[in-house]
Amino acid sequence: MRYFLLLVLSILFAGLLASCESDDPTDTSDLIATGKLYTEDIALGSVGNGFRCITCHTPPETDRVVPGQVYVGYPLQNIAHRTGYWGTSTYNLRGAVNRCIDLFMHGQPLTENGETWSAMNVYFNSISPVFNDTLRTFQTERYFVNSTTYDTARYESIYDEGDPVRGEISFRQYCFECHGFGLSNAPEIRYQPERTIASIAIKVRNSTFTSASERMAFFSVNALPSDTLRNIISYLRLR
Q1: Which residues face 186 on adjacent strands?
Q2: pTM of the predicted model, to two decimals?
Q3: Is 197:155 a contact under the CB 8 Å cutoff?
Q4: What is the mean pLDDT of residues 182-207?
Q5: I want to staple 133 with a disulfide (CB 3.0 to 4.6 A). Which of 81, 83, 214, 221 is the partner?
Q6: Residue 5: pLDDT above 60?
Q7: Is the pLDDT of residue 214 over 80?
């Protein structure tokens, strides 16, 4: 009888240990997995928007990287420990994420204690093993004839006579993720006569999020070299 009681107690104790292990408060694997899914979820944005975190930001997992695509945003790897975001206009990661959700995805901001941000924050920290205080600098290309008027002649001279064949390849690398699928705020691009070389270059280099039609991120020279943009513009003028 005594041995039988010991056997029962042993079984109960083993079950208790298993229960404790499954309820381990330090086990964040489920939150990490959920946060990872949110970075590829279009539900963070408005219906029909189509943008996701990994539309612009390179994911650290190689199986989620689109071959040949150029990601114009900062890589997600080590994103949790940067000293500034959006050119140091914000120093808070949730604030930076909410800016993307507002400007690109047209969704609702994430609250500090909400389930979505809690999971994303744990995931971002899990892929940020190294403290990274390197700020990303932008080489802008903004030419004006006065305080309010762009120097269209200068843009025309810089971006004329590109290679449309190379431009088509670069368009698919830099632009197709947003403009190739007719997303609600990134329509498929077809050339129109009013779209001059200068107007396209100004749009790409100087988009400012000031209206519903200005929801595109500007491309710095670092992210999109001038020769590449010249070729893309030449291709667009033939589409």
Answers
A1: 183
A2: 0.72
A3: yes
A4: 75
A5: 83
A6: no
A7: no
